[in-house]
Design a protein that fits this description.
- The chain has helices at about 5-15, 15-30, 35-50, 50-65, 65-75.
- It is an all-alpha fold.
- It has a domain at about 15-75.
- Helix 2 runs antiparallel to helix 3.
Length: about 100
């Protein structure tokens, strides 16, 4: 049995990377004086709250058993990077 990609779960894991990217943009804008130091600090502070909010959302997510719904949905999703049917046969385009 091959391990298939799980695009829905991968999207949930990329929040930290997105936050780091946004903080970098704010720092760059501050460096070019597009933002004042106070504005940059305020935005970085707000972006710093995102991991806490993601943790809270994760707790709510687990408490409502959305994880089971996602697992059920993933069995019906065919990842574009590894298209195959339930028996493991590769899916090929027609024509």
């Amino acid at each position: 049995m091959t391990i298939r990609p799980v695009p829905i779960r991968d999207a949930f894991k990329s929040v930290g990377n997105a936050t780091d990217f946004l903080i970098s943009i704010v720092v760059i804008l501050g460096g070019y004086s597009a933002l004042s130091a106070q504005q940059g600090d305020a935005i970085v502070g707000l972006l710093g709250a995102i991991p806490g909010l993601v943790t809270l959302a994760g707790d709510v997510y687990r408490s409502f058993k959305v994880k089971a719904a996602i697992a059920q949905a993933e069995s019906k999703v065919t990842p574009l990077s590894d298209p195959m049917d339930n028996e493991g046969n590769r899916l090929l385009p027609l024509g």
